[in-house]
Automatic annotation (TrEMBL):
This is p53 apoptosis effector related to PMP-22. GO terms for cellular component: cytoplasm; desmosome; plasma membrane. The chain crosses the membrane at residues 12-32, 77-98, 110-131, 151-172. The keyword Transmembrane helix applies. Pfam families: PMP22_Claudin (PF00822). It comes from the Eukaryota. It is a multi-pass membrane protein. GO terms for biological process: apoptotic process; cell-cell adhesion. The keyword Nucleotide-binding does not apply. Keywords: Apoptosis, Cell adhesion, Cell junction, Cell membrane, Cytoplasm, Membrane, Transmembrane, Transmembrane helix.
């Protein structure tokens, strides 16, 4: 019987794959134009991390203004982008850490610490953006924070989960490396007479 638990050596690539998924979601958040959108027709407002666009109800062309003209826009973009860059570095370090035969567990715990830093940067950017956007940008109609903003939060949640796993993985060092001998339990329905 083959058992592949959380800390199994054969399953070591799950954590780097999850980090890769977080990177993909981060790219979608950085490139997506759906951070804020009109909730229903007529669609007159949409925004990304980088710019805010509006149009009239009958107009087909979007008029865009850069959010980089605002201090909070630069701060939100910079913090999220710094977190993303550190995430990419953590992914590369995780691939290296799990590729070598002798896994360095202190190295893995350091990756977990860096992932907490990534989460902090991303959360700061994801909180600054809606708070300051709704205070300083004139909103037209009913709007909602939409799919690209959601991908930013999804990436952050995956990063937080991976950070915990990377930090806790050294606690299962012997199981991961296969250094524990199996324990066999034998139970008999009847006690042997010589044990009485």
């Amino acid at each position: 019987m083959v058992v592949c638990g959380l800390a199994c050596w054969r399953c070591r690539w799950l954590l780097p794959l999850l980090l890769g998924l977080a990177i993909i979601m981060g790219i979608i958040a950085l490139a997506g134009r759906g951070w804020l959108e009109s909730e229903s027709e007529p669609y007159v407002q949409q925004a990304s991390l980088w710019e805010s666009c509006t149009r009239g109800e009958e107009d087909l062309n979007w008029t865009c203004e850069s959010l980089m003209d605002y201090g909070w826009g630069r701060a939100a973009a910079a913090t999220y982008l710094v977190g993303f860059v550190i995430l990419v570095i953590c992914f590369a370090l995780a691939v290296i850490a799990f590729s070598i035969e002798i896994l360095r567990f202190n190295f893995v715990r350091g990756i977990g610490g860096l992932l907490f830093v990534v989460a902090a940067f991303q959360i700061i950017g994801l909180v600054i953006y809606p708070v300051k956007f709704t205070e300083e940008i004139l909103l037209m109609g009913d709007n909602m924070f939409s799919w690209a903003y959601g991908f930013g939060w999804a990436s952050t949640v995956v990063v937080i989960g991976c950070a915990f796993f990377f930090c806790c993985l050294p606690n299962w060092e012997d199981e991961v490396l296969g250094n524990i001998k199996p324990t066999y339990y034998y139970s008999s329905p009847e006690r042997a007479p010589y044990l009485n």
